[in-house]
Amino acid sequence: MSVSEASWWPAPAGLNRVIVPVIAATVEEVEQQARAVALADADLVEWRADGLIVPLPAATLAIIAESLRELVAPKPLLFTWRTSDEGGLAPEEVDDGYAEIVAAVLRAKTADLVDVQVRHPAARRLMGVAKEAGVPVVGSWHDTQATPPLGEIVDALAEAESLGASVAKVAVTPCSQGDVITLLSATSQAAKIISIPMITMSMGELGLASRVFGHMLGSQATFATVGAASAPGQLELPALKQYWGLFTD
User: Of 43, 62, 143, 248, which is the most buried if we count CB atoms within 10 A?
Assistant: First the structure.
């Protein structure tokens, strides 16, 4: 199944898909959060496995992903391990195991989608593993320090498509409202030249508008919380729905 063939993607015109993260320090807490998220009015669930306080073997993470997938069904599960340089929570020394972790989940096929950081040295190889396994990939890139120029953001989204991702994702950090406008402008421009769904956002409080209104310019999903947030600036799910309701009623 490709993302474009799935009934839950892309979002209907003018609307946005909502992804709710599950992020916790222990497997028990992860499962508790997953049960709560399963009842939420959201479209997808992301497990941020790097949030575990004690890193587990890659094969074990793949097994846990399968149990979470069952807990949140019929919502699709997105598996993510974020490296420290792109905002991940695990110790930097664990980053060396990134490719092994992602490849294990891909080969086990225990998630509906898997996040692959497109500028990681192993990205091309992991895309090959994903293709062999038939698992859709969210090709992502996160700048946790600043907002790059518009052209660089567009290039990152196009790079995800060229590598074979089913969804392209870019998240940046604004230092001014002008940076938020840069991200939104890049989203609009990229929507004209790439053929896969996109997820874009400007993180933190400054970037709130991008999370709420990004779909008007081409971003097809946003993140909201039911419990812990996985990145700065994520709204609680009821608040996000309330914002949308103001403009659709």
Answer: 62
